[in-house]
Fold this protein.
Amino acid sequence: DTGVSQDPRHKITKRGQNVTFRCDPISEHNRLYWYRQTLGQGPEFLTYFQNEAQLEKSRLLSDRFSAERPKGSFSTLEIQRTEQGDSAMYLCASSLGPENWNTEAFFGQGTRLTVV
Amino acid sequence: AQTVTQSQPEMSVQEAETVTLSCTYDTSESDYYLFWYKQPPSRQMILVIRQEAYKQQNATENRFSVNFQKAAKSFSLKISDSQLGDAAMYFCAYRSAFASGTYKYIFGTGTRLKVLA
């Protein structure tokens, strides 16, 4: 296992289109996180899963965003009716838990979304 | 709600010298974890060092060490013998340790470190 994998690495879409990103976590990790990062800023939390359960979702997250993690393995993040303000790097991370409380999150390389 | 603040948008250090990056945080919790992550240009974030709040001893990883001041809610990163490969964005992050707490990682805005040859 080589780490957290995200696909695609880059996505250019027209405003109003729907996009879907995929994240494959490290296989034994039961926690999976989605973050958004804009240029010069720190990662902003979007949502996280423990196994297949979505335990928390940011209040800043528009209803146009939805995430799933069927069977507690890979996860998808969908953005409907994209807007230019959605342009950002979308980061996925995974970690062990809950018994491994002090473990760090391992990040993927991200999907860079550009909405034109 | 917890917050993490990094007040230095950019820092520079001469190769082989020492630099300290600052981080402060705000929380009402007594037990938590603090992290420093490194994000090289166009590459993924990797963990540099981790500190458990219940431990008084400052964490050290080779050339990287922290100064953890719990009462002051301060968590600075010291990089000794800086190398060109240390150039990156550095993010300070907080995570609750309570079973009933949120397990999301809360990040600061980052400090861009430049290493001068």
Remarks:
- Chain B has a mean pLDDT of 93.
- Chain B touches chain A at residues 4, 6, 9, 33, 35, 37, 43-47, 50, 52, 91, 97, 99, 102-110 (CB under 8 Å).
